[in-house]
Amino acid sequence: MHPRSDISSPLPLASFWAPAPQRLDEVTTGGYHPIMKAVGIKVLKARLSEYIRLAKGGETILVTERDEVVAEIRPARRQPTGTLTMEEALEAMAERGEATLASASFKDWKSLPGVPPATELSSQKILDALREDRRS
């Protein structure tokens, strides 16, 4: 007991230094994004398989170091295992927003004045014309 009766005994130091329970912080990177989980590198290293399962389930996990986001773990984009035709691949890219499909067929394109149609050109003719330009 402390000599002065109005001062209670000090708390043991262990209560100040006890590690906080591990938890995931829910954060977002913008107003329209779904809530994401954030995890420190040390905790991620200790529980990697748990976070891989979350990513496999569709979650995006932010990896932090000293309260700064340094990486993201997100679900992989699954690629089809079969071989796609050029048209199928372009349509899949357009669906993902990675490409814009042409509004007209290549055959319907008109040639510029003074430029021969692509059907009349070959790589050999182009190379010959370039070599001729270099000589003159």
End-to-end distance: 104 Å
Order of strands, main sheet, comes to 1-2-3-4
Radius of gyration: 32 Å
- State the shape: elongated
Oligomer: single chain
In CATH terms, what is the architecture of the domain at 21-73? Answer: 3-Layer(aba) Sandwich
Q: What structural class is derived from the secondary structure elements?
A: alpha+beta
What do we call the CATH topology of the domain at 21-73? YefM-like fold
Q: What portion of residues belong to β-strands?
A: 5-15%
Mean pLDDT reading? 76
Number of DSSP-assigned strands: 4
- Relative helix content: 25-40%
Low-confidence runs? none
Please trace the helix and strand order, writing H or E for each element: HEEHHEEHH
Query: Would you state the CATH class of the domain at 21-73?
Result: Alpha Beta
Please give a structural write-up.
The protein has 136 residues and is of the alpha+beta class. The protein has a domain at 21-73: YefM-like fold (3-Layer(aba) Sandwich). Helix content is 32%, strand content 14%. It has five helices and four strands; from the N terminus they run H-E-E-H-H-E-E-H-H. It has helices spanning 13-17, 41-46, 48-56, 86-95, 123-135; strands at residues 25-27, 36-40, 61-65, 68-73. Strands 1-2-3-4 form a four-stranded mixed sheet. 1% of the residues are buried. The model has no long low-confidence stretch (mean pLDDT 76).
